[in-house]
Amino acid sequence: MFGIRKKSKHIKRPVINIEYAPFPVVEAYKALRANIQFTGVGRKVKKILFTSSNPMEGKTSVSVNLAVTLGQAGQKVLLIDTDLRKPRVHTLLGLPLSPGLTNVLVKNQGFDAAVKRDSTRSIDVLTCGPIPPNPTELLGSTAMKEFLDSVEENYDYIIMDTPPVLLMSDAAVLSKYADGVVIVIQAAVTTFDMVKGVISNLEKAGANILGCVLNDVRMEEMSKHRYGTKYGYYRNYSHYYDKDSK
Question: pLDDT tens digits for 210-219?
Answer without folding.
Answer: 999 998 877 6
